[in-house]
Amino acid sequence: MxxxxxxxxxxxxxxxxxxxxxxxxxxxxxxxxxxxxxxxLLVKNFIIFQxxxxxIYGIAVLALNILTGGSGQFSLGQSAFYAIGAYTSxxxxxxxxxxxxxxxxxxxxxxxxxGFLFGQPALRLSGVYLALATFALATAMPQLLKLGFFEKxxxxxxxxxxTKPEAPEAVQSMLTWFQLKMSQDMWLYYFTLVVTVAIYISxxxxxxxxxxxAFMAIRDNEIAASAMGVDVALxxxxxxxxxxxxxxxAGGLGAIAVQFVAPDSYTITxxxxxxxxxxxxxxxxxxxxxxxxxFIIFVPNLAESISKGLSGAVFGVLLFLVIFLVPHGARQxxxxxxxxxxxxxxx
Amino acid sequence: MTAMLNVKDLxxxxxxxxxxxxxNFSLNEGSLTTLLGANGAGKTTTLRAICNMVRSTxxxxxxxxxxxxxxxxxxxxxxxxxxxxxxxxxxxxxxxxNLQLGAITRRDRVGIVADIERMYGYFPVLKQxxxxxxxxxxxxxxxxxxxxxxxxxxxxxxLLDEPSFGLAxxxxxxxxxxxxxxxxxxxxxxxxxxxxxxxxxxxxDQAYVIETGRxxxxxxxxxxxxxxxxxxxxxxx
Amino acid sequence: MxxxxxxxxAGISTGAIYACMALALVMIYQAIDHLNFAQGEMxxxxxxxxxxxxxxxxxxxxxxxxxxxxxxxxxxxxxxxxFKPLAKAxxxxxxxxxxxxxxIINSCAGLIWDFTIKQYPTPFGSSxxxxxxxxxxxxxxxxGITLLMLLGLFYFFRxxxxxxxxxxxxxxxxxxxxxxxxxxxxxxxxxxMAAAIGxxxxxxxxxxxFLEPNMMLGVLIYGxxxxxxxxxxxxxxxxxxxxxxxxxxxxxxxxIPGVGNELKLPIALALIITVLVVKPAGLFGRPIVKRV
Lengths: 347, 237, 292
Description:
Number of helices of chain B: 10
Helix content of chain A: over 70%
Oligomer: heterotrimer
Order of helices and strands of chain A: HHHHHHHEHHHHHEHHHH
């Protein structure tokens, strides 16, 4: 081993997910899609709302997966980008009467720019230092949103109420043909589902593309990557930008779904939750994002139902259980099941 | 002559991949043995298996004691020093601290201080740099530091993994000369893994050749060096 | 001008809190090469234990020593039971573990002692120190204890065999094993020491910020920032970092208009990050030389 190899051996903080294991098989994906399409037809509106939030947080966790699992950069600041996206949608919808669907690409592009800019000074930081920097961003955001200076737009501490969209005319009239009516929740769910699938597919393609390979080269060994001609600065900031942009879209969807934005909804707690979602889902494994999302939505409620006074402790214990059993997250479960199925097939 | 190290049917695995397929060899006390072979043949794996740094099955006995169930640090405390591939220097610590660490399991303060002086005698450049951060030393100097650190243990068996790697030929000669001295004067049994077969065969008295996880040749070093077929097939010269 | 000097002095005395916390964080970083967010909660819990002992009539310094010992053992126990099984897991999984630990400790403390603020005694009294209006005897005592701990740690790491062994185990664990060091126990020891130092930090800080389960959050963040600013490999840097952060915080609050309590933290953090961009290893950290 030469001196260069010494660095590789000691440096790798984010482990690589092998390329072919990066997504679910076609079969599993189709089954999952079918489930996601059909379940809302059978359940009450509140459950539909929860499923919408499941998808939205899934998108946010996916964004973090691209940043950390893909390019190896830590971020405890995703809540800031989520907040920017949320407020962008809210402000555009409530102050400028922009159609809700249009606010999403705007939120995405705006957050991409912010993320890209943030990525610049972040270039010189890594590991725990980058975590600290992103943490600072996350703690600053609620305070910035409360600033009197912006109150005219942001509604200050009270925030803004967002109008829930109706399904568009065309869809409504089509449904009345079949004597069906689509509730707002259901429409929003399917809208979110379409956005989610689009983002998921684009992200998978991104990670498989040349840029994706550049990200992963940087994650695995930055010095070697730059020695091979990868423009490290460009790709690192790009990763930040893409991740922020996707998180911004999630934030926008979140604002529309919850019908409300307020500074204290986007604290560091959200950033930590998204981080935990990434770990539980399996770092760098995009399909795991939805498992991680489910964890952060449902497990805290579960903890509270087990013990109101000790809900935090119960949550911690449940989290420990998960990481003891599957330290590599849901990806590990998927891999083990795959192996079991393969063994059964051989019989 | 008693066998100091006895290896029987050693199989080693990296995850699902099997790297060693049943090695059998032994080292006599006081011998200087070299383990030769091409890249990826399993030489490093063998040394790591002896120190239980890699998953393995089979029987390894050192001075009659089985090593299989012991942790790396316990094996080291039995008197086996291992200079790993890449040297494993404590780069953030000073040269002198690296040497002190070699003796961290020893209790005799006076002996340790004396030994450090002895190391500076073998490797004067280390004395020059003794307060320097070890990571700032050149490759050759770090290699010498790694060997010196191993010697601070006062080991009875020393394992060296490719000590010549990346070093200039003159430095390698000096290093091998010192290894020879240590073997003869301090009575340290040595097993040295090398890709530079020619130099290793000049230094050693015994040699093993390993290929894809199996020993294909064993014998006296001179024998193997003089055997042209062996040299061409396995050693590349 | 006088306001400026006063603010600097005030900053140094609040900075002692952060210095104390930063020391504990650097301690754990030396041992395990990453930062444990639950450190603050462990310190808080230890402080509550000492408070409880004093409620039961135990005199201050006796309670102090018992708490110190308890924290040391608890730190080792937590590491052996909760984090040794995660030793082979990825770092990010370990970080999730720290977050879980934080949640557990915070919740338990809230249940046992509830969230009302409690007074915590100081052994140093709170009269003005040497007649100065800015530093009380308690704050002077706090600075004194912090410096004492610093000295102790410095001596420990530089001049004792175990200290050297711990540094080696944190630096290159494989090589440490190859010289016969039981790296697993070195990590446990590091946790124990960090917990003990943290408990001292908690007991020093509580008289100032008052005792309640969430008392350490702000301190932890500033302490974290101070440790990073000082350079994570340097206990001395941690202490200086603490004083600097305290001063930054005070100056920012005094001189930048419109900055209330809420924005002090992000601004202080932003300043620290600026320093890091210029000096990535922190002010006193040893930049790690890597030969490529």
